[in-house]
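Tutorial sheet, problem 5. The two components below are modelled jointly, 333 residues in total.
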Amino acid sequence: MSFINLKDKIVQVKIVYYGPGRCGKTTNLEYINRTYRKQIVSEMVSLKTHGDRTLFFDFLPFDMGQIKGYDVKIQLYTVPGQVKYNATRKLVLRGVDGIVFVADAMEKQREKNIRSLNQLHENLQSYKESIFRIPLVMQYNKVDLKEHGIPILPTEVLEKDLNSKLKVPYFEASAITGYNVAATLKKIISSSVISIQKKLL
Amino acid sequence: MNYGIVSQEQLEQIDLLLSEKLIKLGVDCVIIIDMAGNIITAKDNGESKYDVYSFAALAAGNFATVDAMAKLVGEQEFSLLFHKGQESNIHFSKIDDELLLISMFGRDISLGFLRLNVVDVIEKIRKIWEKR
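Model answer (structure tokens):
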């Protein structure tokens, strides 16, 4: 549920990066924070454990300029990826407008991706939202590991595992080097804004 | 999915209420947010420089956590939350299932006096909000 302020002409759009533990959600936000520093007025907020794992969420507000006279404020969130934090993940999903599902392309993470996506489906249902309706973009992260000889899943396999029914836009990416991080972000922003426009018309 | 849209008139009424009833009292900053962490409106005394967007995200998370804890101990909700510091304090109060009123204030106001006024403001905001 994005909030639209008719008085100050501001639209707030909530985008959540979702995915299994250590897949690179926070790394996505950190890259965006570094690269678009000029558009970001406040500091990135990270609630994490001493071991640098996300405990609650990361938060990065971001001004996108104007659409039809309205200031669009994008609010980027991540969820904690660790299995035990599902209650917290659910809380972060409240009122979400668009989701980036960050999948870990490493071969050994195959099952974790699928499990995490299934849980996203369930969590959205608890808010009477549907994974088939909400703006969603897939990001197959860590493709750079291939160069280091670490076995990664071919995109076709990830597509079959995660996106065969959803059929949403997808990107191969490397959050650590920034490859396709911006492309993913642009895609989810445009899908979310279009979806909000459609619902309002 | 319901979209949170309030009219300009309603927002102006709410803003006026916050200024008259809380800022004039000596509250540094008042924010109304929804449970998703969006800001509905924010008013301050002109001196405080809080990053209200980050604040809203954290406050919504904080309140949601406390709400979940309430359910774990068999309570329907904890509708009020208060954090006390050396120089500044934060008071959270639920307006309805979707909205939260947050007041930040210093040492000049007593908690009791603030609470009395917050209750009054919330009553009035509910009435304005119902007209959506």
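Marking note: Chain A has one domain: 11-193. Full credit if you identified this.
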